[in-house]
Specification:
Number of strands: 4
Helix content: 25-40%
Largest sheet: 2 strands, antiparallel
Order of helices and strands: EEHHEE
Number of helices: 2
Radius of gyration: 33 Å
Shape: rod-shaped
Length: 115
Amino acid sequence: MKTTLTPGAVLGVPMWLAMCALAALSCILLLVGLLAVMTLRRTDERDIPQALLGLSHIISAMCGLLPWGKPTPPPALPEAPTTAPEPTAAPTAGPTVVLIREQSAAPVIVPRDLR
């Protein structure tokens, strides 16, 4: 099977259709670039990783506009680090028994000896 290329075709596609596809792809790339520049200009330096992650979400969603593109789920946002770890309980020999007196006094915690 031999394919003949007409003078007004690019890879077997009519020239007007190839030009429309090129214009659409150029507009999408221009839109993504413009959005990235505007976002990064207004973003504080500390927030740049989150801004770039947000841009990746937008670009992934815009991939659905392409005929061959499938949007992929972008990575999740990073969790904020905790300020201070919670203190761990000191290891004890066994269960702890709490004694409460009838008199007004502070409760006393006495470890139980398991012999």
